[in-house]
Amino acid sequence: MADFVGALDQGTTSTRFMIFDHGGNEVARHQLEHEQILPRAGWVEHNPTEIWERTRAVIQTTLNKANLTHADLAAFGITNQRETTLVWNRRTGRPYYNAIVWQDTRTDRIASALERDGRGKTIRHRAGLPPATYFSAGKVQWIMENVDGVREAAEKGDAVFGNMDTWVLWNLTGGTDGGVHVTDVTNASRTMLMDLETLDWDDELLSFFGIPRSMLPEIRPSSAPDPYGVTRADGPLGGEVPLTGILGDQQAATVGQVCFSPGEAKNTYGTGNFLLLNTGEELVRSKAGMLTTVCYKFGDHPQVYALEGSIAVTGSAVQWLRDQLGIISGAAQSENLARQVEDNGGVYFVPAFSGLFAPYWRSDARGAIVGLSRFNTNAHLARATLESICYQSKDVVEAMREDSGVSLDVLKVDGGVTANELCMQMQADILGVPVSRPVVAETTALGAAYAAGLAVGFWNTTDELRQNWNEDKRWLPTWSDEQREQGYAGWKKAVERTYGWVEVD
Fold first, then answer.
1. Which terminus of the chain has fewer CB atoms gathered within 10 Å of its CB, N or C?
2. Architecture of domain 34-50+78-250
């Protein structure tokens, strides 16, 4: 058998390809950013053709860096930004419109109408999700209603839908020349269209959005011994490699963090934050604003479920300090600036740029900086930005405890923001539990590699994967209970100030 597994990580701001060995160690990687298209307030789009070009480039460059070929890869896995929605023509391969990104809020009226007329209750029960701008179905409906010719093409069977996993897989397996149109259960569970119990598209949910079933990809397990397809010899790999793993990015990070037992949780710090708690084969329906989602399904084994707290803006708030305000030149500088002050100086920043996600689900909210006085400096704002990442995570942890009865002993963390050691210390202080970062911080790509490798016997069991996990650093809480309570009370007051800034019909 070949010695390595490849994983494509198609994320919100960039696309990377990584190669791992049997020990779960990174062998090589290459990463390229893509444009964030912001046509108007609340709208966020990506150019899918640019993403496919970036996909080709990162695969070829990574293989060249490692002096490897397709023959060195036992399997290929894909992980992706979830909910980001694309409709394209299966005959020409051309997108009808830019991909509408998960952060986009243009479908707020669609979501509000579902909630108002009672259909939201059905969506919550069947799909485990609240009606929200976050998920894919409303975005498909918007494209069909607002882009000329899409509805007619969909009814003829020419227009097809997919999240970014489906788009890159379709292209890798031939595109217009026999491209495979599939997704996995984790991505399908983020659409508001899949029944969590049957793991199939639900006709009543499809009718809520006017989406023909013919538009939808086939739903497959996250790890598939029977490959979804193989890469094309004329593609970026230059040969045939079985495509055997697909996981939405946050489920992939959960697998990469080897959270295979009920009660184990991880928090990924990326563009947004996503905290997943493994609930095993039990489907836990949230009463506290969490999402019920599929965590993974490996081959013929029963699906494993999770509770998820999804936070829209965390790492992208640091990007906002850099790109829109210009008070830092790079993400790393946020830590140095924030260290110039001992506390937030009474300043709280609630970055509700796309409304508030879990556990509030308030599409009428918008960002607010509160508590300012002339005493405050850009260092206080930098510190408040890092604290906002941690307080939003605390909101989710509290809601998960209410739903599941599980109190965390430790929080496993991953993603780019975990390089900010001040932020991770704040997270331990605000939560009051230890925070643990693994040696391989890019657990999203690693999880996709694990799913693909398990399918072909590169790894035999999840116990084997556990042996690969090693802790890099642990942060212990230093705040008193009084500090923690006072800080959180101030945060809750700040959150309330964001409500009602946008009128939602």
1. C
2. 2-Layer Sandwich (3.30)
